[in-house]
Amino acid sequence: MTNTNAILSLKNVTVKVRSDNGSETEILKNFNLDVADGDFITVLGANGAGKSTFFNVIAGTLPADSGQIFHAGQDITSVSAEKRTAFLSRVFQDPKMGTSPRMTVAENLLLAAKRGEKRRLLPRHLNSKMADFERITAAMGNKLDQRLNTATENLSGGQRQALSFLMATYKKPDILLLDEHTAALDPKTSAELMQKTAQRVNEDHLTCLMITHRMDDALKYGNRLIVIDNGAVSHDFNRDEKAALTKDKLFSFFDAEA
Ligand SMILES: Nc1ncnc2c1ncn2[C@@H]1O[C@H](COP(=O)(O)OP(=O)(O)OP(=O)(O)O)[C@@H](O)[C@H]1O
């Protein structure tokens, strides 16, 4: 049975990979997690711990070998990645991943606005959305609103990542996966996008999981922090426990696990 209050649950999820010599390795091992509606969970873990694999099974881009995944109480273990985009979006580390390079900023936003609908891009659709696109891009504070008619490939990395984030959140997904989405940006741009991210997540009451290697961000943002080690959740801190954490304490978990 699953926790019916959870918007997302992973129950004993195992993912195995087969190497060329035929041997099998479990990269997620009986992975269990209940995510409550409105949780903002920061996800830490060493390189190779299984964080991206965890996101891949939630998104459906990698099948689980055993176990189950539930969305709002519904078993979605066999639902395709494409169908999961109706309630789930993801932003990747690479600014090139989330957007169509030859399309303008406004056209990309229109794609996001029409997700789950027929995807024909008609000028009248664009015209009717333009004021909204101006509003949400201006709110990012990085002059993206002045580049609505620019091809996305000509944006800065920070602007492109801000656009990916706006596209992922436009339709208020039930589950937002942020996979080191600020890691490729310079410190100032990264901090700005992180602050806008938190603002949007809070204002829209989004349920969000964010992988990061930045301990400061993992501590500063969200109401819950998990550590993944060796394909499973090794630590799960609630709001109060997280508030009492320090960077040194977090480092000690990694040292102890090494
Ligand atoms: N398709 C695959 N085939 C073989 N091994 C894989 C595959 N996908 C992941 N792995 C291995 O599984 C382990 C977990 O990988 P994963 O990318 O989930 O880790 P991660 O925690 O996201 O790491 P990082 O912080 O470096 O991004 C790694 O050892 C990785 O090499």
Give the cofactors and ligands. adenosine-5'-triphosphate
Q: Structural class, judged by helices and strands?
A: alpha/beta
Number of strands: 10
Biggest sheet strand order reads 6-7-8-3-9-10
The name of the CATH superfamily of the largest domain reads P-loop containing nucleotide triphosphate hydrolases
| Beta-strand residue percentage | 15-25%
Which regions have little confidence, pLDDT < 50, spanning 5+ residues?
Answer: none
CATH topology of the largest domain: Rossmann fold
Supply Rg. 19 Å
| Order of H and E elements | EEEHEEHEHHHEHEHEEHH
CATH structural architecture of the largest domain: 3-Layer(aba) Sandwich
Domain ABC transporter: 8-255
Protein name: ABC transporter ATP-binding protein
Membrane topology: Peripheral membrane protein
GO molecular function, one term: ATP binding
Describe this entry's structure for a reader.
The chain is an alpha/beta fold. The chain has 2 domains: 1-87 and 173-258, P-loop containing nucleotide triphosphate hydrolases (Rossmann fold); 99-171, no CATH class. The chain is 35% helix and 25% strand. The protein has helices at 51-59, 81-84, 105-113, 123-138, 157-169, 187-203, 215-220, 239-243, 247-257; strands spanning 6-18, 24-36, 40-44, 66-71, 74-75, 88-91, 175-179, 208-211, 224-229, 232-237. The strands form 2 sheets. It has a 6-stranded mixed β-sheet with strand order 6-7-8-3-9-10, with helices on both faces. Helix 3 (105-113) runs parallel beside helix 5 (157-169) and helix 5 (157-169) packs parallel to helix 6. The two termini are 34 Å apart. The model has no long low-confidence stretch (mean pLDDT 92). The structure holds adenosine-5'-triphosphate. The site of adenosine-5'-triphosphate (ATP) has 10 residues, from helix 1.
